[in-house]
Structures are given as C-alpha cells and as structure tokens.
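Thread: "does anyone have the structure for this chain?"

Original post by V.I.:
We have the sequence but no experimental structure in hand. Need at least a predicted one for the grant figures.
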Amino acid sequence: MSVYVVRAFVKLRELLATNEELPCRLEELEAHLEKKLTAHDQAILAVLTAIRQFVNPTTPKSRPIGFTADLGEKR
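Reply from O.Q.:
Generated one for you, tokens below.
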C-alpha cells in the first residue's frame, strides 16, 4: 500500500511542475481556508467563554433563613 502512496505523491509532484495555474489556485485555497479557520477559532473562543461563565457562576446575595426584622429599612 505504501508504494501506491509514494506513486501518488510522485505523480502530484509531476503535475505541480508542469501546471502553472495549479500553484496559484492552491495559494487561493489556502488563503480561503485560513479565513475560515480564523472565523471558526473566534466561534470556538466564544463558546469556551460561555462555558466558563456557566462553570463559574456568580453567587447571588443570600438572605439568612428565618425571620429577621429590618428596622432600618422602610417601605
């Protein structure tokens, strides 16, 4: 099986050497993929930030259990 893989890479190298348009197209494809990766990276970062907020929630101010007279507070 590895012989077939080596033959495929040799054939690809020959195609790249003879075709002048192909390297330009590969560069365009690479640039397009990089743009998508940065967009995906930002989306993943946003998801991780949201998960961190759920994992570390802020504790709400709690009142003591039972009856407490708030004499200083007026309604």
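V.I.: this helps a lot. Residues 4 and 23 are 24 Å apart (CA to CA).
O.Q.: and Helices lie at 2-18, 21-55.
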